[in-house]
Design a protein that fits this description.
Length: 199
Protein backbone atom coordinates (compact mmCIF):
# COMPACT_ATOMS: atom_id res chain seq x y z
CA UNK A 1 0.00 0.00 0.00
CA UNK A 2 1.42 3.36 -0.96
CA UNK A 3 1.55 6.45 1.18
CA UNK A 4 -1.23 8.10 -0.85
CA UNK A 5 -3.47 5.01 -0.58
CA UNK A 6 -3.13 5.08 3.18
CA UNK A 7 -4.09 8.79 3.26
CA UNK A 8 -7.16 8.10 1.13
CA UNK A 9 -8.33 5.38 3.50
CA UNK A 10 -8.09 7.66 6.55
CA UNK A 11 -4.82 6.43 8.00
CA UNK A 12 -2.40 8.78 9.63
CA UNK A 13 0.41 9.86 7.36
CA UNK A 14 3.13 7.25 7.41
CA UNK A 15 1.20 4.66 9.43
CA UNK A 16 0.53 2.32 6.50
CA UNK A 17 -2.79 0.88 7.74
CA UNK A 18 -6.49 1.77 7.86
CA UNK A 19 -7.58 3.71 10.94
CA UNK A 20 -10.17 2.38 13.42
CA UNK A 21 -12.41 5.33 12.52
CA UNK A 22 -12.44 4.34 8.84
CA UNK A 23 -13.12 0.70 9.78
CA UNK A 24 -16.14 1.81 11.80
CA UNK A 25 -17.45 3.84 8.86
CA UNK A 26 -17.00 0.87 6.50
CA UNK A 27 -18.68 -1.49 8.98
CA UNK A 28 -21.67 0.86 9.36
CA UNK A 29 -21.98 1.12 5.58
CA UNK A 30 -21.91 -2.70 5.21
CA UNK A 31 -24.56 -3.05 7.93
CA UNK A 32 -26.71 -0.37 6.27
CA UNK A 33 -26.57 -2.19 2.92
CA UNK A 34 -27.38 -5.51 4.58
CA UNK A 35 -30.32 -3.99 6.49
CA UNK A 36 -31.69 -2.36 3.34
CA UNK A 37 -31.65 -5.76 1.62
CA UNK A 38 -33.53 -7.48 4.44
CA UNK A 39 -35.87 -4.73 5.73
CA UNK A 40 -38.48 -3.10 3.50
CA UNK A 41 -38.80 0.52 4.63
CA UNK A 42 -41.94 1.04 2.53
CA UNK A 43 -43.79 -1.21 5.00
CA UNK A 44 -42.54 0.62 8.10
CA UNK A 45 -45.49 2.73 9.40
CA UNK A 46 -43.20 5.21 11.19
CA UNK A 47 -40.76 5.86 8.30
CA UNK A 48 -41.33 9.09 6.39
CA UNK A 49 -39.26 11.18 4.01
CA UNK A 50 -39.86 14.92 4.43
CA UNK A 51 -39.64 17.74 1.88
CA UNK A 52 -35.99 18.41 2.75
CA UNK A 53 -34.90 14.91 1.79
CA UNK A 54 -34.36 13.87 5.40
CA UNK A 55 -35.89 10.81 6.99
CA UNK A 56 -38.21 11.07 9.97
CA UNK A 57 -39.33 8.61 12.59
CA UNK A 58 -42.95 9.55 13.23
CA UNK A 59 -43.01 7.57 16.45
CA UNK A 60 -40.03 9.25 18.11
CA UNK A 61 -40.12 12.53 16.13
CA UNK A 62 -36.45 12.27 15.17
CA UNK A 63 -34.67 13.35 11.95
CA UNK A 64 -32.13 11.17 10.13
CA UNK A 65 -29.81 12.04 7.27
CA UNK A 66 -29.93 8.63 5.55
CA UNK A 67 -31.73 5.31 5.62
CA UNK A 68 -28.90 3.57 7.44
CA UNK A 69 -29.10 6.10 10.24
CA UNK A 70 -32.85 5.54 10.47
CA UNK A 71 -32.39 1.75 10.55
CA UNK A 72 -29.82 2.10 13.33
CA UNK A 73 -32.34 4.26 15.23
CA UNK A 74 -35.05 1.60 14.91
CA UNK A 75 -32.77 -0.87 16.69
CA UNK A 76 -31.97 1.64 19.43
CA UNK A 77 -33.25 1.89 22.99
CA UNK A 78 -35.40 5.02 22.49
CA UNK A 79 -37.34 3.61 19.51
CA UNK A 80 -37.87 0.25 21.23
CA UNK A 81 -39.18 1.96 24.40
CA UNK A 82 -41.59 4.09 22.35
CA UNK A 83 -42.83 0.98 20.53
CA UNK A 84 -43.48 -0.73 23.88
CA UNK A 85 -45.34 2.36 25.20
CA UNK A 86 -47.47 2.56 22.04
CA UNK A 87 -48.36 -1.16 22.25
CA UNK A 88 -49.28 -0.85 25.94
CA UNK A 89 -51.47 2.21 25.29
CA UNK A 90 -53.27 0.54 22.36
CA UNK A 91 -53.86 -2.59 24.45
CA UNK A 92 -55.37 -0.47 27.27
CA UNK A 93 -57.60 1.52 24.88
CA UNK A 94 -58.79 -1.53 22.97
CA UNK A 95 -62.24 -2.56 24.26
CA UNK A 96 -62.48 -6.05 25.63
CA UNK A 97 -64.56 -8.04 23.19
CA UNK A 98 -66.64 -10.92 24.47
CA UNK A 99 -65.73 -14.36 23.31
CA UNK A 100 -67.61 -15.26 20.14
CA UNK A 101 -70.59 -17.43 20.89
CA UNK A 102 -71.14 -20.51 18.88
CA UNK A 103 -74.16 -20.31 16.67
CA UNK A 104 -76.62 -23.13 16.71
CA UNK A 105 -76.30 -25.34 13.69
CA UNK A 106 -78.69 -24.32 10.96
CA UNK A 107 -81.24 -27.03 10.47
CA UNK A 108 -81.52 -27.82 6.79
CA UNK A 109 -84.93 -28.96 5.68
CA UNK A 110 -86.37 -29.49 2.26
CA UNK A 111 -89.02 -26.87 1.55
CA UNK A 112 -92.33 -28.34 0.40
CA UNK A 113 -93.91 -25.19 -1.03
CA UNK A 114 -96.02 -22.27 0.04
CA UNK A 115 -98.67 -22.67 2.73
CA UNK A 116 -102.30 -21.88 1.99
CA UNK A 117 -103.44 -18.45 3.16
CA UNK A 118 -106.40 -16.10 3.28
CA UNK A 119 -106.28 -12.35 4.00
CA UNK A 120 -109.41 -10.54 5.15
CA UNK A 121 -109.78 -6.77 5.44
CA UNK A 122 -111.96 -5.72 8.37
CA UNK A 123 -113.52 -2.45 9.54
CA UNK A 124 -114.84 -1.79 13.04
CA UNK A 125 -117.71 0.74 12.80
CA UNK A 126 -117.60 1.62 16.52
CA UNK A 127 -113.89 2.51 16.73
CA UNK A 128 -113.57 3.28 13.03
CA UNK A 129 -110.43 1.14 12.96
CA UNK A 130 -109.25 -0.92 10.02
CA UNK A 131 -107.62 -4.28 10.49
CA UNK A 132 -106.26 -7.22 8.58
CA UNK A 133 -106.86 -10.88 9.42
CA UNK A 134 -104.22 -13.33 8.12
CA UNK A 135 -105.14 -17.02 8.09
CA UNK A 136 -102.17 -19.25 7.22
CA UNK A 137 -102.57 -23.01 6.87
CA UNK A 138 -99.64 -25.20 7.97
CA UNK A 139 -101.04 -28.76 7.98
CA UNK A 140 -97.67 -30.55 7.83
CA UNK A 141 -95.52 -28.75 10.42
CA UNK A 142 -93.88 -30.79 13.17
CA UNK A 143 -95.89 -31.54 16.27
CA UNK A 144 -95.31 -28.99 19.02
CA UNK A 145 -93.73 -26.30 16.84
CA UNK A 146 -95.31 -22.89 16.41
CA UNK A 147 -95.07 -20.73 13.30
CA UNK A 148 -93.15 -17.48 13.68
CA UNK A 149 -94.02 -14.03 12.40
CA UNK A 150 -92.32 -10.66 12.28
CA UNK A 151 -92.61 -7.19 10.78
CA UNK A 152 -89.95 -6.09 8.28
CA UNK A 153 -89.35 -2.57 7.03
CA UNK A 154 -89.14 -1.88 3.31
CA UNK A 155 -85.42 -1.11 3.72
CA UNK A 156 -84.59 -4.60 5.04
CA UNK A 157 -85.97 -6.53 2.09
CA UNK A 158 -84.11 -6.98 -1.19
CA UNK A 159 -86.87 -8.19 -3.52
CA UNK A 160 -88.47 -4.87 -4.50
CA UNK A 161 -87.35 -1.23 -4.69
CA UNK A 162 -87.63 0.58 -1.34
CA UNK A 163 -90.89 2.33 -0.65
CA UNK A 164 -91.35 3.86 2.78
CA UNK A 165 -95.17 3.73 2.41
CA UNK A 166 -95.12 -0.05 2.95
CA UNK A 167 -93.82 -2.65 5.37
CA UNK A 168 -93.84 -6.45 5.24
CA UNK A 169 -95.35 -9.07 7.52
CA UNK A 170 -93.53 -12.41 7.33
CA UNK A 171 -94.71 -15.87 8.42
CA UNK A 172 -92.39 -18.85 8.73
CA UNK A 173 -92.78 -22.52 9.68
CA UNK A 174 -90.67 -25.47 8.55
CA UNK A 175 -90.91 -27.21 6.11
CA UNK A 176 -92.88 -24.51 4.29
CA UNK A 177 -91.44 -21.51 2.46
CA UNK A 178 -91.52 -18.10 4.15
CA UNK A 179 -94.51 -16.03 3.01
CA UNK A 180 -94.69 -12.26 3.29
CA UNK A 181 -97.44 -9.73 2.84
CA UNK A 182 -96.94 -6.12 1.78
CA UNK A 183 -99.03 -3.93 4.06
CA UNK A 184 -99.31 -0.15 4.61
CA UNK A 185 -96.57 1.31 6.82
CA UNK A 186 -98.89 2.40 9.62
CA UNK A 187 -98.35 2.00 13.34
CA UNK A 188 -99.63 -1.38 14.51
CA UNK A 189 -101.86 -1.32 17.60
CA UNK A 190 -100.37 -4.08 19.76
CA UNK A 191 -103.00 -3.98 22.49
CA UNK A 192 -103.89 -7.55 23.65
CA UNK A 193 -107.49 -7.33 22.41
CA UNK A 194 -106.45 -5.95 19.00
CA UNK A 195 -103.19 -7.72 18.10
CA UNK A 196 -103.47 -11.47 18.62
CA UNK A 197 -102.47 -14.78 17.11
CA UNK A 198 -103.92 -18.22 17.43
CA UNK A 199 -102.13 -21.33 16.23
Amino acid sequence: MSFLDAREHGSKPGSGFVSAQQEAIDRRERLRRLALETIDLSKDPYFMRNHLGQYECRLCLTLHTNEGNYLAHTQGKRHQQNLAKRAAREAAEKPVQPAPQRRAAVKKTVKIGRPGYRVTKQFDAETRARSLLFQIEYPEIEEGTRPRHRMMSAYEQRKEPWDKKFQYLLFSADPYEVVSFKIPNLEVDRAPDRFFNHW
